[in-house]
Amino acid sequence: MKKVVQLFDKVDYVFFFVAKIAVLIMMFITTADAVMRYLFNQALVGAYHFSEKYLMVIIVFFSLSYVMKMKGHISIDLFIKYLPKKLVKVLDMFYTLLAAILMFFIGYQAMMMTQEAYVNHYVATGIISWPTWLSWIWVPIGAYLFTLRLLFIFLQLLFNFNQVETEEDRVTE
Amino acid sequence: MTIAIPMFLLLVLLATGMPIAFSMGIAGAVGLLFIGGTDLFLGIIQTTPYDSVAVFLFTTIPMFILMAELMTASDMTKDIFNASNKWMGHLPGGLGIATVFAGAGLGAVSGSSTASAATLATSAVPEMKKYGYKSHFAMGVSSISGTLAIMIPPSIVLILYGILTDTGVGSLLIAGIIPGIITAIGYVITILYWVKRDPSVAPKIPQKVPLNERLQSIKPIWPVLILMSVVIGGIYAGIVTATEAGALGAFATFVIALLMRKLKVKGISKALNNTLRSTAMIMLIIIGAMIFGYFLTATQVTQKMIGFIGDSGMSKWVVLSIVIILYLILGVFMDQVAILILTLPLTFPLIVSLGFNPIWFGIIVTKTAEIGLVTPPVGMNVFVASGAAGIDTAVAFKGVTRFVVTDLIILLILILFPFISTWLPSMMLGS
Amino acid sequence: LVACGHSEPTQKEEASEGESKEAASQGETIKIKIADSFPNSHTISKYATLPWIDRIEELGEGKIEVEYYPAEQLGKADSLLDVAKNKVADITYVGPLYVSDTMPLSGVVGNPGLVKDAISGTKAYNKLVHEDLYEVELKPHGVKPLWAAALNPYQIVNSKHPVKEIKDFKGLKIRTSGGLQEQLMQNWGVTPVSVPAPEIYTAWDRGTLDGTLISLFSWPGYQIEKLAKYSTVNAKLSSFGVMYVVNEEVWESWPEEVRQAVEKASNEASDMMAQAIVDHENALMEEYKEQGVEFYELPEEELQKWDEELEPFNRKWAENLDAKGMPGTEILEKFTQYNEEFSK
Ligand code: NA
Ligand code: NA
Predict the structure, then answer these.
(1) Which residues form a coiled coil (chain B) (predicted)?
(2) Which B residues in the span 31-60 are in contact with A, Cβ-Cβ below 8 Å?
């Protein structure tokens, strides 16, 4: 189990790394577009569309799962202090599973959209022809990755249910 | 009934520790299944996640956060605090006042209040503790000074408001300048008053820093001044649109930091990690809020409520008061981004139809968002500052109480004198 | 409970059609959910959608109750086709230019040089949608058109100099919304700039833009009159299409009299909208003239020159679609022909 999770973390980091690169690319092309327009009266064709429909989607969906590992999806910890520890653990498990189910449906529905766009060759035309499926595909990939992450967290919580909580395991943020 | 159950579910999920984004997504999904079956549920979740993300205006979120993170990674933010410290440290509560100034300075280059609060907490709190300041004072000042970042331009909240209401983003950003300065002054007065009433929270630091050393401290902040002019000047000179300003600001920070040899690969990598962490967190909350929002509109309860208020013949000031109180109450227990998405499509047309100025209303909403950022149980700035400083949230919540009172007074002033918000944009942009 | 539908009576019908038709004829009301992206104050909803909804309810004689979701309350403009397809709402607005990837043929309304004005353009587009586009492009998505309209074509509006010939475009920074517009402007020497709509005013005011392609009707939303100095009145740069569609399965589930009421109201809606747009724009133009905006006509021979320049763009557009196995040329020819017929 531990090895599987470690392997998954590595794979997940590859996607996260792609998102990091996407952030840098967005910074460069948006700046280049503005500066070229201002100085040379020449826009960087497609920068806007590429940032909006491709980079944004990659940045968000390729980082959702890894940010969960970083415990970055915040929750309210003010009240759970007053709840019995066992109950909090049970709720945690249950909630993680619920979230996994929701993410799975999101991934599945987005996969259907991607497939429809791919099969029918949907293209947004302009000076550049932008394939729609290449804008969508990051959603199912990211959502499925996130689903897996949540399932692993669920299983870890399940197997470690009777262990004494260590500082590392704390799920609160 | 159909609306009560998911609403109640949302509150339970939030209170029992489910991440905010999932609480809203799950409660919304249950609500959609409840009122419209699987068709409605599957239909909404098919397009909502993508549609909420693939929005050009939202590129400002990662870009402005990246700019703030790059500044932190290259120690520029620390330099701001150091300089304010050298100049104001000897005053009563001086380190606190220095933190407010640093918060305003950071606010002028960063659009993210949480990034700002985290920076202040890491640099200012240890310094204050070193001189014997009380923890709740230090945490309160850091958390509240972070909120200046969403009033002083650039501001993610004002940009989001512009997106959701089709109000010009440029005018909104400029409108935040004077209210932001007034807010900072209000915080300084609060500190002075607090320290006068209870000197033990902030012991006096006897030695005054010599003038020479003070002047020296200004030197390292020139990059920050350049970045301020790049962002605001870039918009004003027409080089960039308000949306693109974040990317230009991040790029300028990147270049300056590299030239000064203050940024290494490791620093860049960490800045990118933090950028994605905040971006993914905010965007997932936006997706959850959109799902819950579609549930709310599908029940038509909110539309009917707003319609009822609109048709009731109440005076416009009564309606405005109801709306503002609603924002303050929501701000107590919900995330600011989620509140804007859920409410603005309904409150904005109502407020504008009553003849109120849309830019002014944007500033009022932002002020309530500032307050919401530091009130328990969901006080993002307090969460982040506590996390960064390693101090319990309860201590920080205690420390912000007085500042919340100040904020409420400033809110009242902004409501009563709309020209504070509208004068500058009308001067600069003629709108 | 989970099985219970998006709007109760309609769902029951899906469960058992016959039963519900009986129920309806016994005097039960049918709830129809209509969703679009226009805020209530928007000209399209004021002059077309809201009167149309009133008319549906009026013709329904108490048997139809419309629930209206304006302002993207059930989905973004780009996704409203999916909203109808997925039965999130029964009837939705579809902006062909927002779904140019899924419904490229319907986007012909946005091609330059075809629509001359809202009245003839609407008649032409409404006909094209019902007679030609329905089979090839709406039916596959499970939706059926109710009515369609075309707005007055976009004009070139700027604050630098009057654009009277094609060479006057050179060097201007013009906001476009992608697609053919962007290609055309680039070709005529313009620097096409992409700016989100809420930022048009500031970007123009600060000189990031010199102007925009826009129809008069959208001026108030962006305070264009405060910045614009020159505007053409008769250029045929591109038109904006409006379409309201209904989910086919939902449509089939409605009793005959409900369908008739919706159809009748819809047939009236498109002409009503075109006339209202033309009147409204004329009033706006008078108002803006007084505020000092210069409106000017392009002479007939110049317009012909523009048309000649535009022709290859349209041809290329059609050929691209032909190559993908879609009747691009056929649709282009029909739409050109309908426009000519109705503008005589
Ligand atoms: Na700011
Ligand atoms: Na709060």
Answers:
(1) none
(2) 42, 45-47, 49-50, 53-56, 58-59
